[in-house]
Design a protein that fits this description.
Elements lengths: L28 H12 L3 E19 L3 E18 L9 E8 L6 E4 L4 E4 L2 E7 L6 E8 L11 H16 L24
Antiparallel strand pairs: 1-2, 1-7, 2-3, 3-4, 5-6, 6-7
């Protein structure tokens, strides 16, 4: 005598079925980048520009060696961010952030009016409020030849950083006609 197993349409068990789990909504790269930046700089409200790769240099001057640029050990993706307005006077605030791929220390520099673009470097000056000393930083942004996704990246980001610094200092309203205006909330990544 042989036994035939019949498929069953019902599964008899006393164990309840797990609740249906909702699949989380898909997040865009812009949303993911913003959430990561907000962990490092909680006051960030939008990303204005992104450069896929930048290196941070610091200007040093010693009696023995004289003035020189040295790598700071920070390199990675560069973000130009808009922050919540200043609570005291409502002034606009912007920062440059480089999320370091080589270590745990990131570069976060609030923007003010003193920005230069020289020999392919964006030059930022910031004052350390605790020690009262001025730091001079050089940002080198990787770019490839014309026709690539990173072509012109240094100049585009330089103009955006200069414009944001001027706005933070209260000097200049955005002028979209010069290519350096403040872009709409959300990620703006030129030719990326």
């Amino acid at each position: 005598m042989s036994a035939h197993l019949q498929p069953s349409d019902q599964y008899d068990s006393d164990v309840p079925l797990p609740p249906a789990q909702e699949i989380p909504p898909q997040r865009t790269n812009a949303e993911l980048n913003l959430s990561v930046l907000q962990r490092h700089l909680p006051s960030t409200i939008s990303i204005i520009s992104i450069a896929p790769y930048a290196v941070v240099y610091i200007f040093t001057s010693t009696v023995q060696n004289g003035p020189a640029w040295e790598k700071s050990g920070i390199e990675g993706t560069l973000f130009v961010c808009q922050q919540t307005p200043n609570e005291r006077d409502g002034a606009e605030r912007y920062s440059v952030v480089v999320l370091n791929r080589k270590g745990l220390n990131d570069f976060i520099c609030p923007l003010s009016g003193d920005i230069d673009f020289e020999a392919g470097y964006i030059i930022l000056r910031s004052t350390n409020t605790e020690e009262g000393e001025e730091n001079i930083w050089g940002l080198w942004i990787f770019e490839e030849d014309e026709g690539s996704s990173t072509a012109g990246m240094r100049e585009v980001n330089s103009k955006i950083i200069q414009n944001c610094a001027a706005r933070a200092a209260g000097n200049v309203p955005a002028d979209p006609s010069n290519g350096a205006g403040i872009y709409p909330t959300g990620a703006y990544s030129p030719r990326i």
